[in-house]
Design goal:
Distance between the termini of chain A: 41 Å
Number of domains of chain A: 2
CATH class of the largest domain in chain A: Mainly Alpha
Largest interface: A-D, 69 and 66 residues
Helix content of chain A: 55-70%
CATH topology of the largest domain in chain A: Four Helix Bundle (Hemerythrin (Met), subunit A)
CATH superfamily of the largest domain in chain A: Voltage-gated potassium channels. Chain C
Number of helices of chain A: 13
Oligomer: homotetramer
Chain lengths: 276, 276, 276, 276
């Protein structure tokens, strides 16, 4: 069966099982990493001043290659809108357009840093999620506990707002950097998460006492997300890994090991049609 | 049955099941968030200087609305003292009064930051505790281990007092900021909880050695709160899972092992119809 | 039976079951907390300059009371050496002697900070270990895994020595504070434990790259102490809380619940001699 | 049987069961620790200026002893290349050569810090891995989850690259230190791992908001490595505990559930004498 060039192109770009598809993926991966390297080098002042010419040419090469890929993706798909407005479609657009914009708008060049977003495609190309996904208890545990984690984060934010406001009251007359409530909230988050930059730090004894309470609080409640994930993991392990929910047709015993062929309690076959 | 206007008001303010009650909750939630936003904006110097007039008017609008709510809550409840001296009653009062005080006492305006405390009502309005509470193992684990956590925190505080005092002895002649024992204790807490601001840091080799010990200690004993919560969680899971909810028909004892055929307490068969 | 005054004194000081013993413990607890408060206040310069006279008198009162306690403890015990060279005996001596020394040796006054060590007696007086100890799985888990934790700490120290030496090689020419290998090792500990003061921080790209590796390493291997403690806890729970090692004399089934009187599998009494 | 001096030397150097072998190990351990202490002292400026002569002589003594050990190791082994290109062989070479190089090349002296790498031999001499290894669940858990941990680290790095690039866009015009994308990525790692030096810190409200998100993210996803290790540990425990070590007398299958009466694979009774 002869395929149209469009469906061939689709196979190469969107699928990874053919040799051509695999080659495309590898070339794309290298291009993405090279483009990120370029963006990084360009942001280093000394390098840009020395090798500005080379960087500009390399940027244009990468941009044109990405543009070709972008157009090829649109052409080869049946419903272009499905790609264009997809997560990766938007990222591909955002990482290609700044170089063209820089021809018309001064300063838009720096938007090229958005190209780092293309790194996310690494997960898709390398199918990294598979490695986690194969025994994807962690992912499922995170998904199953997303409401709890969301409420936990909201709790943290409300706590930091309250504590930040109180610290603003106490420290606002000092030289300690608590110049506004948003800054104080930022400080509370920095402290509660045990990051502790030190750009803002309490100077009054009362402020330091409250800061100590926040620190011990933050040191302690790190047990909560860990506990949520671990508890979810433990209940999953219990549910579906070791024992299945099969019931013996002879004695109705449950709790058989996965892969068990015979009932451990009465010795009857568990899957009569299969053992025939 | 005709209701008095007081009981209708009570239904709207204190209950959330009627449409009017739900509407009241939503309006209150928006008002609280708006009032917090106002307080934050006012604390930013640039914004206050530009939009001082607008902020002042908006503050008064919010304050009057909160005052009406406060009075309505007092009128519509049978025993006003139960609301006034309740947790939320005190918070509502503290977040309404500073604006009035600012008319008489210069400087009391900044107390308006206490309004952030009203954020706690968010938990009640959104019934956020329900989401954690539905499978509230974490909450139960925290409650069950509150004495252990309390002793752990007391242990941390005593440890920091001792280590802070020793560091004061060692570093007090240096320019490192260990100017008093309370400050040294504050530093010990900052270090043990791995926050590490850097506003106070040891300079002598001996001080740095002891600081290193505190850090490794703090890095290690973070396992303790995590361990306490996880252990409590694990033993809860075990209660629910390893033992079933069967009650012996003879002696009514509960807590039998899954798979048990006879009551562990009186020896009667647990499943008479099956053992027949 | 008439007791000698010595044995009465011993009962009051060393035991806590009589009313007099309890009173003594409470008075001692208050005295210790007061003495710590004094030491803290004295270390604050502003306070010492204002209230130096009061502090000096209060110090002498506390010191004399502690001296009386120390002598009473020696007199009332049969073998004084057992107390004098015990852990608490040494601490009591160290926290009493500096005030006397200050009469002869200038500067020894600051050793009074050692009095903070007396805080450890709080654990004994309040019997705080009981609260952890009652369900003392955490303590037993820590004790059972002390070799593993020791090896882990040694591993951390060796790792920090190696990484610190390498960082000294890379950053020694910069203004970043890596002035000697011991300082670099101190920095490696500060970084690996995620404390991060910022008093020493790499400036070269290579140094920052290695620092990044250390940070991610430190962020990841915090799972190891947590894992050690949790694993130990889990195996303990499994061992001795839910099921015992009893074997039924009739059907030899094992895995009975603690407290079980009858075999869950055949219904025979598990403890024939007891049920007789 | 008379042994050649080569095989005797091999026994002393490479084995630890004979008295001579044990003595060699102890002497070597002391020499390594002494050499590390020397390197540390030499890096401290004040000490080197005072005791430069002594340090130089001691360095040469250590270097010559290490050279003798190195040559002895090469001579006494059958295939010298197996030692020379082994992990420890390379380390031994790297820690011996800098002193000789310093005779010819100025500045190579500082490479002597590489000697810290010899500390790794401590693990071998003290057989420290045995203590972890005896109940080596942690090690097995780390090994079993190395792919997941690798993917997790790659995820962290990609996340930091993206977040660092975005922060560079936002903060590049400020005095906050985000001077290039690599530096911004370094900052993102410092923040996500909750180290928080504070040498680079956001100054704009938008930058601080994104920094807050990164901090809460870092505070939360520390649960992931802990969860991975704990889950792996738990499933290991389960393998040992929930399944027994019985082997079916008919088909030799292992891994039966505790309490199983019949083989789950072939249906034969597992305990023929009991079922009779």
């Amino acid at each position: 069966m002869a395929k149209s060039w469009k469906s061939k192109l689709h196979e190469i770009i969107y699928e990874a099982d053919t040799p051509a598809g695999k080659l495309f993926d590898i070339v794309l991966l290298i291009l993405i990493l090279a483009s990120i390297a370029l963006v990084m080098l360009e942001s280093v002042d000394e390098f840009r001043l020395k090798h500005g010419k080379f960087l500009d040419i390399a940027e244009w090469v990468i941009t044109i290659l990405f543009s070709i890929e972008y157009i090829a993706r649109i052409i080869s798909i049946r419903k272009p809108s499905r790609y264009i407005f997809s997560f990766y479609g938007v990222i591909d657009f955002l990482s290609t357009i700044p170089k063209y914009l820089s021809l018309f708008i001064v300063g838009s060049q720096s938007l090229i840093a958005l190209r780092a977003l293309r790194l996310m495609r690494v997960f898709r190309i390398l199918k990294l999620t598979r490695y986690i996904g194969e025994s994807n208890n962690i992912m499922r545990a995170l998904r199953a506990s997303r409401i709890k984690i969301g409420v936990f984060i909201m709790f943290i934010l409300i706590l930091c707002t309250i504590l930040g406001s109180i610290m603003y009251l106490i420290e606002s007359n000092e030289e300690s950097g608590f110049t506004s409530i948003p800054r104080s909230i930022y400080w509370a988050i920095v402290t509660l998460t045990t990051v502790g930059y030190g750009d803002i730090a309490p100077l009054t004894p009362l402020g330091q006492s409250i800061a100590s309470i926040i620190m011990i609080l933050g040191y302690g409640i790190i047990a909560v997300p860990t506990g949520i994930v671990t508890a979810e993991l433990a209940s999953m392990e219990k549910d579906d890994i070791q024992l299945n929910t099969l019931s013996c047709s002879n004695c109705a015993t449950e709790g058989h090991r996965n892969g068990a062929e015979y009932c451990f309690d009465c010795g009857e076959p568990l899957h009569p049609e299969e053992t025939d």
